[in-house]
Amino acid sequence: MGREHWKKIWVGSAGNMVEWFDWFVYASFATYFAGSFFPEGNDTAKLMNTAGIFAVGFFMRPVGGWLLGRVADRKGRKTALTLTVTLMSASALLIAVAPTYAVAGYGGAGVLLIARLLQGLSVGGEYAASATYLTEASAPEHRGFASSFQYVSMTAGQVLGLGLLIVLQRTMSDAALHSWGWRIPFVIGALGAAVVFYLRRTMLETEVYEESAGDGVAVGEQGTLKALWAHRREAFLVVALTMGGTVAYYTYTTYLTKYLSNSAGLPKQTATLVSFCALIVFACLQPLAGRLSDRIGRRPLLITFAVGSTLLSVPILAMLKHAGSFWPALGLSLLALLVVTGYTSINACVKAELFPTGIRALGVALPYAVANALFGGTAEYVALWFKNAGIESGFSWYVAGCAAVSLIVYLVMRETRDIDLGRVGGKGSGGPGTLPGQKRDQLPVS
Q: 3-205+214-412: which CATH number, 3.30.1360.70, 2.40.10.10, 1.20.1250.20, 1.10.645.10?
């Protein structure tokens, strides 16, 4: 790829990394700050309270997807990406200074909730804006490879968060971490977002947006719900194909550390190290799988993920619960994340390839955010609910069932690898929602 393409990928990915660092350190450090905002009681109950606030952030993501997706389609991808990182910096700073239960009662939890809502607003727009930007910024034959860096940067943000946790675990006492040490990553996140704000102000807009921003929608309706409704089949397709992938992803990333420590009985330090090592390998797999999709298509990878997740979720989670030590836990975690790679490496470009330029960001943002609010954001809470109810194994069947639903969608959807982003639903393409060479009644689901 050309130097200009790499520059766009770097700037887009660096901002995405900081965004997701701020988003994920909440989950990574939850076991340390759960007791700071809620009264003494059952450890699982306190984790459920913090997981509930984690899930609430996801329910704000559709709002963020709508507002910031609209901005991205009407004002440009660069404007939306700059705005998202501003919101994320503010939310991280709020968490860093939030008062504890001992100081302000449930007022501290209220500040935590407001900050998490702001994070949800930011991430709701970040996913779509960065997915659209990375997909549009790359050459057609490298879209899968380029867009895979979205999950590379997302995972890098989480790895940095876990790495920081490991460092703090080894340099601070457990009491200090529970008392005030958990605030450190949020201070770092706020500062990092401020740096990225400067980088994004100097980034270049994509050529696809500059040349075909109004294609596929009526004049003045870019980024509107009316325009999205004209592409409702594609929007429902995004929800369905996201369902299984987002549940599996959040199960084996954000929830994994807590599952290993709270259910498998591994020490917190060991559980954190397992997640850290597994995620480094996971990040390295993304470009390889993305490049493979540029050669063989998107559907084969999606189908491989769904079949693997449907068949392996129950045995993997059962064996993880009895892993007992670092190496068995790491091996099983890597197997799970290898399966998930079939979804994560290409889901950004698949969704972007379904919509015309004038509605692409909103088309990716809103349905994806809805799917994450319903399934991804609640995955950890559902898992803890099953555990608290004494039927923890039921969660693994839930993960497998969500993957099975998405498998049906992958089997019937059309291949999107070879479409022209500038012509999706645009002039000469046959109308809203069509791919190049299709007639209006040939939508992306066969």
A: 1.20.1250.20
Q: What is the pLDDT of residues 174-217, one digit of tens each?
A: 889 988 998 999 999 999 988 888 888 878 888 888 887 766 77
Q: Give residue-wise pLDDT tens across range 291-323.
A: 999 999 999 999 999 999 999 999 999 999 999
- Which residues fall within 8 angstroms of residue 441, CB to CB, at 6 or more apart? none
Comparing CA positions, the residue from 48, 400, 368 lying closest to residue 244 is: 400
Query: Which residues neighbour 443 within 8 Å (Cβ) at sequence distance 6 or greater?
Result: 233, 234, 433, 434
The total number of residues shown for the chain amounts to 446
Average pLDDT taken over every residue of the chain:
86
Asked whether the beta carbons of 417 and 144 are under 8 A apart, the reply is yes
- Alpha helices (runs of H) in 297-441, residue ranges in sequence order: 299-321, 326-344, 347-352, 360-371, 379-388, 394-412
Q: What SS3 class is residue 445?
A: strand
Structure tokens at 398: 């839930």
CA pair distance 91, 85, nearest whole angstrom: 10
The residue with tokens 């698949």 is 350
DSSP state string for 331-359: HHHHHHHHHHHHHHTTHHHHHHTTS-GGG
Instruction: Provide the residue ranges of all domains of the chain, joining segments of one domain with +.
Output: 3-205+214-412
